[in-house]
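Subject: two folds for Thursday's group meeting

Dear M.,

Sorry for the delay on this. The cluster queue was jammed most of the week, so I only got both jobs back this morning. I'm pasting them in the order they finished. Each block is the input sequence followed by the predicted C-alpha cells. Could you check whether the formatting survives your parser before we put anything on slides? The first protein is the one we discussed after the seminar.
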Amino acid sequence: YWLLERYIRLLISLKMFTMIPFYASKLPPETAEHIIINFMYEIEDEKIRLNVLAAAHSVGIDTTELCNKLFAHAIEVNDAADEGDKCDLKLISAWNWLKYPGKEALIEALFAANLILRRFFGVEKLKEAKLLFEQMEGGLCDVVEKFWSIEFIGTSLPRELADAIAENRSYQAYLVALDDFNSWFNHFKMSEPEVPRTPSKDLWIRMDIQQRAAFEVEQAKAAELCTRHRSAGDVLCETAIDSLIGILLFPGGWLKFTFLEQNITNEKVRERMEKLREIRQSYLAAVVGMLIVIYDQSQDSHGAVRLADLLADEKYEIAEALSRDQLRGFCRHLAVISGGMNKWT
C-alpha cells in the first residue's frame, strides 16, 4: 500500500481533497482513518469541508462518526495544558465539524461544546468562549430540545442531557451578564455632558438678544444631552443588575448539579464535578463582586441589603459556593454600602 499512500500524500499537497476519501478507502481501515482524519483536521474552509464529507459519504464512510473522531482528535492534539491562542482556535474550528452531519450529531455537539467551554471558563478565556457561542447558530440548546421533542414525543429529556443543556445555558448567561456589566461600567466612566453655566447678571445685561438666544439654545441642548446620559446610565444599570441577579437565581443553581451516586465513582465524572465546582465558586464570586461595584457606585443601599439577603438565603446556596474569605469580604463591603457610606471613593 506504500505507493497508494504516497499518491494520497501527493493529492493532499496538490489540495485535491475530494479525491482523497476514494483512494484512502482502498487502504486498511486504520490506515485510511488516520490519513483522512489528519488531513481533514487541517481544513478550515467550510465549503471544502462539506465537499470532502460528501466525497467520504459517497464511498461508504460514516460521516457522523468521522466528524466525532475529528473532534476527538482535536481534543487530543490540543491538550488542556497548552493554552496558546492557536490551540483555542483549532478547538473551536474542530467543533464546527459536529454541525455538518445534521440532527444525528446535535447532542454530541452540545456535550463537545460544554467540554470546550469548561476549559475556557477554567482559565478565564471568555473571549474564546464567546467565539464558540457565535458558532452555535440558532441557539444550540433550543435546537437540541426541539429535536428531542420531535424525535422522542412525550419522553422527558434524560438527566445527563438536561444537565448538559443547563450547563451550556449557564455559560451563556454569564457572558451576557458580563457584557451588560461592562456596558454599564464603560458608560459610568464617561464624563457627563457639561451644561453651560448661566452668565452673571452684568454679563447677561451686556449680551444682545441674539447672544442670549444662542446661549439658551446651547444650554437647552446640553441639558438634554445630560438627561439622556443619565437615562441611558439608569437603563444600563438596571439591565446589568437584572442579568447578574439572574445568575444568582439561575434555575436549579448556576452550574450546580447533583450527580447520581453510581456516577460519582467514575473518575471522569469526579473530575468534571470538581471543575464545575471551581468554576462555580470563581464566577459566582465575580458576579457578587460586580453587583457590589454597581451598588457602591450608584449608592444603592437598598440593593446592597437585597444582595446580602440573597447571600444569606439557603435556598440558592450562594454562600455555600464561596470561600469563607470571599464571603467575609463581600459582607464587609455590603455592610458599608448599606450603611450609607461609600467605601471606594
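Second protein, same layout:
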Amino acid sequence: MKFDSLQNYAHEFYEQSTPYAKIGAVGGIILAFYIPYRYFIARQRKTPIKSDYKQGLVYLYQFPRMKYVPTMSAFCLKMETWLRMADIQYENICSWSVRSLEGTLPFLEYNGKEYPDSALAIRDMTAIFSKESMENHLNDEQKATARAFEAMAENSLEMANIYFRLVEYIDEAIEQLPDNAFGMLTPVWKFLLKKMLTLKVSFYS
C-alpha cells in the first residue's frame, strides 16, 4: 500500500512539473539506472559462458520466454527462426542479464566461440554449417532485393514496431512478461522502458 501511495505521489508530482523539470527528472532517472546497467553488461566475464558445452551444439542466448509469444525481441525471434529453418541443433539459454562481449542480445556460442549480433551470427553459421543452399534459388538481383528489405525491416520498420508495441501499448507488453519478472521494480522498469524507447525512436526518426 505504501509503495502504491508513493507511486501515485510521484506520478502526480511528475504531471504537475514544468516541461523542463520533466526532462530533467526523466534524464536523471534514466542515467541513474542506465550507467550501472551499462557497467553491468559490459563488465569482463569468462568466455565461453557455457564451459561444459557439447561439440556441434549451438547455444542461443536470448531474453526469457514471454507468456503468449516466444520473445518480445524481433532479433531474438529472427535468430531462433533462422536456426529452425536451417535445421541446426541448438539449445536456448534465456537470461535478462547476460550479454555478448559487445553488449548485445541475442548471440550464439558454438564449440567454445562466441558469435554476437544476429546478422553476423547468421552469416557465420551459414559458412560453418554450409547452409548457402538456403538461398540458391535466388538470383543476384533477388538476393540484393532481399537484403534491402532486411535492412528496411531491421531499421525503419523496427522503430515503428518498438513504438507501437513497447511505447503506445506498454501495459499490454508488460502483461506478457513472466510472473514477477522484475518484482516490485516492475512499475519503475515500465516507466524507464517507455521513456528510453520513446527517445530511441525519436533519435532514429
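Two things I noticed about the second structure. The domain at 58-134 is CATH 3.40.30.10 (Glutaredoxin). The first strand starts at residue 58 and ends at 62.

Cheers,
T.
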